[in-house]
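Action item from last week, closing it out:
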Amino acid sequence: VLHSDHCARELLPWLDGMLAADEAYFKEHGEPLFSSHMIDLSADPKEENIRITKEYFERCAPMKLWLEMEIGITGGEEDGVNNESADKDMLYTPSEDVYEVYQALAPIAPYFSIAAAFGNVHGVYKPGNVVLRPELLEQHQQYVRKHAELDSKFPLYLVFHGGSGSTKEEISTAVGYGVVKMNVDTDTQFAYLAGVRDFVLEHKDRLLQQVGDLSKGENDDTPNKKYYDPRNWIRHGEKTMYKRVQEANSDLGNVNTL
């Protein structure tokens, strides 16, 4: 699995380049180089968002290359996109907007997912500052099912942005309403830091100098290379992040599923 995430308008040339690489690889090997891309034009007017997304999806579909899109905005700040001052009403995508996306993309191919906002915010905040409404996801499913006259209970593949800090109940509810992907960037960043931080705090008397342990005075002349070697302390960050990813897989019901 190789996915590119959050391609905003100013980064579309990068997506163009990746798709060109996908098409070249597909021509030679019968499969794309990437398994999925995400186009994020949620900051653009809805009509522009859907129109441009459709154009890119028409390139992806012949390769069975998955495309994720976002309709409605995710609060907070990430990767230089700051929505911290956004009107809170904008954090909840109407079902009508989700259906417009479905109408534009479904006739092309089924290989797409929709990140519809339901109060999502990038980052972790104090309890009460973020009001998630995962029940809106069920409303989206029912709305599309009704208006498109479909038999499937969950016709949409939905994405949960800003999943860090969410309760297990919120995650379980969202998955139950058709969420197939959740972003937990902030939590994995903190988990990585935790491993490095704890290693540094535990061995700080050796990490302040190349030789000797400060707590043992001048009599200790043991080299400290094995402590400050990046391959050591970075590995501790990888271990704690790995555990956080395992937790997320469990929360999403994605254990022993392949």
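Closing note: The radius of gyration is 22 Å.
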